[in-house]
Design brief:
Layout (H helix, E strand, L loop, with lengths): L1 E5 L4 H17 L4 E7 L14 E5 L7 H17 L3 E4 L4 H10 L3 E5 L12 E3 L9 H11 L15 H7 L10 E5 L11 H14 L4 E4 L6 H11 L3 E3 L6 H10 L2 E5 L2 H9 L3 E5 L4 H4 L6 E5 L19 H4 L3 H12 L12
Parallel strand pairs: 1-2, 1-4, 2-3, 4-5, 5-6, 7-8, 7-10, 8-9, 10-11, 11-12
């Protein structure tokens, strides 16, 4: 049996889709499963034990001739494999067309009525109570439709030994009191102010004498990291722009707590079982919040929340993020820090 999963992006969305892969392989252990994924996050899935191969999508060059040719080449390769089952978990017109062109025997996707994607499927699966469900639960409607039992005895993000070896040169992995600080996000509307992260960090280290902080993110987050370091310089390590995606995952895995915006690192934390303090603004934590782990979620009670926009259209701007104080975030992190034991990466219900 050959299966193609279409879920190219974003990082958090791909993480939310991974239980479909895990349960599918539990039920069909000999299945050959391939994944169409954005090339910028391919390291998330490279060498995954449940995958036979990857098709890379050059999302940033999608509108160029070279990018279009890359998609055509991928579709040609997909057709050669003669998939028995194609699953679209992106459910947008672009992914729907790619899946249709792959010409598998059976093509299914979620009936989300977005960009008319459902018109391309052989079977459009309508998740019950979709508007109230977490994204993970919506994806698992595909598993239910296929008659596959929901078995949670899997490792969501398996360890990668090469990344574990590398991070030992970046931090002292024997320390058990690391707290991850993740100030980045794709949308500016999702970003809690760097000064608030800094104040929360200072309150944490003043309260927990043995706490050590790791600032994580991309090169774009270095300015925010500088602001945070100014408050806790002797108690933190700044790794913004210095880790690969697998290394980021392994660092978060050994942390006691993560403090984050609604971002990729927050979803990584949930997948590896690290408790999360999450600050939400324009998005809905019921749909995209930390899934099935100890967490504290903060979101302002304002008429415009959640707006699901990447630009703020109210005055004063970013009130939803500025309304959440460093004190409440710091106290929540201290509370989670004291939780005895830390989840393994094996998910349980």
């Amino acid at each position: 049996m050959k299966v193609l999963i279409l879920k190219p992006s974003s990082l958090g969305d791909v993480i939310h889709a991974l239980p479909v892969l895990r349960m599918l392989k539990k039920h069909f252990p000999t299945a050959q499963v391939f994944w169409w994924v954005d090339s910028t996050i391919k390291d998330l899935l490279t060498d995954d034990p449940d995958l036979t191969g990857l098709f890379l999508f050059e999302r940033q060059r999608w509108h160029t001739v070279e990018g279009a040719l890359s998609v055509i080449r991928s579709v040609i390769d997909m057709r050669k494999l003669q998939f028995d089952l194609v699953i679209d978990l992106q459910n947008l017109l672009r992914s729907a067309i790619v899946g249709w062109l792959a010409n598998g025997t059976t093509y299914i996707g979620l009936d989300q009525r977005r960009e008319l994607a459902h018109l391309f499927y052989d079977h459009a699966v309508n998740p019950p109570y979709a508007s109230l469900q977490h994204a993970v639960e919506q994806n698992l409607a595909i598993i239910d439709y296929l008659g596959i039992p929901r078995t949670w005895d899997f490792v969501w993000l398996p360890k990668k030994e090469h990344a574990i070896t590398k991070i030992q040169s970046l931090i002292d992995t024997s320390i058990t009191t690391w707290i991850a600080i993740c100030p980045g996000a794709r949308w500016i509307t999702k970003k809690w102010p760097a000064t608030y992260f800094a104040q929360a960090a200072r309150l944490i280290v003043e309260t927990i004498p043995n706490a050590r902080l790791i600032i994580l993110g991309t090169q774009a987050d270095t300015a925010a990291a500088d602001v945070i370091k100014s408050q806790v310089r002797d108690r933190c390590v700044d790794l913004t722009g210095r880790t690969s995606l697998p290394q980021l995952i392994e660092i978060i895995r050994i942390c006691r707590v993560t403090i984050s915006n609604d971002s990729g690192p927050m979803h990584i934390s949930a997948a590896v079982g690290t408790p999360v303090v999450a600050v939400f603004g324009p998005t809905d934590p019921k749909r995209t919040g930390p899934y099935k782990i100890p967490s504290r979620i903060f979101q302002a009670n304002l008429p415009c929340v959640p707006c699901d926009r990447n630009k703020c259209r109210v005055t004063p701007t970013f009130k939803c993020m500025h309304s959440i104080t460093p004190e409440v975030v710091a106290m929540a992190a201290i509370e989670l820090f004291d939780i005895a034991g830390k989840n393994s990466a094996v998910v349980s219900t």
